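Title: Comparing notes on inverse folding

I've been comparing how different people in this forum approach sequence design from structure. To keep things fair, I'm posting one structure and asking everyone to reply with a full sequence. Here's the target:
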C-alpha cells in the first residue's frame, strides 16, 4: 500500500485518517472491510518499511529506515497523486502492480543520486511507459 501524503517517507512517524486512506489507496471495498484489512496488516506486520497502529479514526505509520534529511540537497519527491496512479494503471494494464512499480521508481530515483524533479508525477508516468516498452 503506497500513500499519497506529501513527504511522508521523510518523517519518522506520520498519520492519516482512515477514510482518507481508504480513498487514496483506491479501495473498492467497504470502509468496514478496509478496517479489517488494516487490522490484519497490523497484526502480521505485512509492510516491510513501516509498523502501523490504528487510533480511533486514524492510521499511524512508523517508518523503520528514518534518517534526518534536514540537510539533504534534494528531499524525496512527494508521492504520486491519485490521478497519476490511475493513469499509470492504464499504461501498465494488468502486467504490473502500480504500487510495486512506484516503489521501483522511488528506488531508482534514490539510486540515481536523488536528482531534483520538476514533475515527480511526469517522471513516474515516463518510468511506467519505459517499463511497458521493455517488458
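Reply #1:
Here's my take.
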Amino acid at each position: 500500500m503506497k500513500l499519497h501524503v506529501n513527504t511522508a517517507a521523510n518523517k519518522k512517524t506520520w498519520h492519516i485518517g482512515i477514510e482518507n486512506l481508504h480513498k487514496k489507496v483506491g479501495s473498492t471495498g467497504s470502509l468496514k472491510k478496509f478496517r479489517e484489512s488494516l487490522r490484519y496488516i497490523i497484526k502480521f506486520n505485512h509492510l516491510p518499511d513501516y509498523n502501523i497502529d490504528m487510533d480511533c479514526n486514524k492510521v499511524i505509520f512508523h517508518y523503520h529506515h528514518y534518517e534526518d534529511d534536514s540537510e539533504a540537497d534534494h528531499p524525496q519527491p512527494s508521492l504520486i497523486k491519485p490521478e497519476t496512479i490511475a493513469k499509470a494503471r492504464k499504461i501498465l494494464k494488468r502486467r504490473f502492480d502500480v504500487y510495486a512499480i512506484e516503489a521501483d521508481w522511488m528506488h531508482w530515483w534514490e539510486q540515481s543520486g536523488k536528482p531534483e524533479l520538476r514533475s515527480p508525477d511526469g517522471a513516474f508516468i515516463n518510468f511506467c511507459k519505459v517499463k511497458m516498452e521493455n517488458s
